[in-house]
Design goal:
Blueprint lengths: L1 E10 L2 E11 L4 E5 L6 H9 L6 E6 L2 E2 L8 E4 L11 H11 L4 H14 L15 H13 L5 E4 L8 H16 L4 E5 L2 H7 L2 E6 L2 E7 H9 L2 E6 L12 E7 L2 E6 L4 H11 L2 E6 L4 H8 L1
Parallel strand pairs: 3-8, 3-9, 6-7, 7-8
Antiparallel strand pairs: 1-2, 1-4, 4-5, 9-10, 11-13, 11-14, 12-13
Helix pairs in contact: 2-3
Bound molecules: adenosine-5'-diphosphate (ADP).
Amino acid sequence: MLTVTAISRSFGDHRVLHDVTFEVRPGRMTGFLGANGSGKTTTMRIVLGVLAPHGGEVAWRGRPVREGERPSFGYMPEERGLYPKMAVGDQIAWLGRLHGLDRATARANTDRLLDRLDLADRAGDQLEALSLGNQQRVQIAAALVHDPEVLVLDEPFSGLDPIAVGVVLGVLRERAAAGVPVLFSSHQLALVEQLCDDVVIISGGRVTASGTREELRERYGTRRHELVVSSDAGWVRDLPGVRVVELDGPRAVFELDGGDDQDVLRAALERGAVRAFGPVVPTLDEIFKEAM
Ligand code: ADP
């Protein structure tokens, strides 16, 4: 388990992280969600030890993360720091060597990753000759070449087309299935909704919600109910203890304000046929807006 406990950080007078606390579990894809400027990159840089926190602690397997352990972390920074003019395969293998792999292992890992990322035929090309999407795949290979124990990826899916998202996701899921905690940031909610097991939502430098995707949906979702009848549902507005939040012809979405959902159902049945009735499962997008 990777734990982040009460991390704080300022730049000058500007406090950008306030007691940020969450955990990234082995074998899980954890999505770190927040708007631009909410503190995701700063948090990730602290997790990686690139930046020191002003308070709090990062621990891996119960021990504070120390300088020497960091090479076992795989990091994909937002500012992608690879060499445009160097051949893709040589560059990845060289990074593997920097992380302490012997030459044969570095080369074997490079070949396996490039193959897995559908880049095997580009290994001899300069990085800058590749499309931006393919360059991003190379960045993923760079973060993974040394078989890191922990993966921290800053916006790994931004700028990728759906096919590339699928390929990268497959590779990350394999690492997660092998027991690696995977933390990745994103501001693209719809995407993350499909990709992550656990979610941490950060807003203004504070964690406003965290848990499994299902937990978050349940926590934020049980309040809303949907009713679909066969004619106009406007009468729901007049029921006591019910607050209509959306009304569209025969469909009403409501929250209970002292009322009982079964009373609403009875009232609907008295008026005619009921096409649908039940809790509304919110999208992550809705949860995110509420947790902001
Ligand atoms: P995100 O990754 O969610 O977009 P960041 O962690 O990059 O957010 O930034 C959070 C806040 O910290 C922003 O207001 C940003 O301007 C500020 N910030 C980040 N890095 C620095 C820095 N090196 N110096 C000053 N301010 C910074």
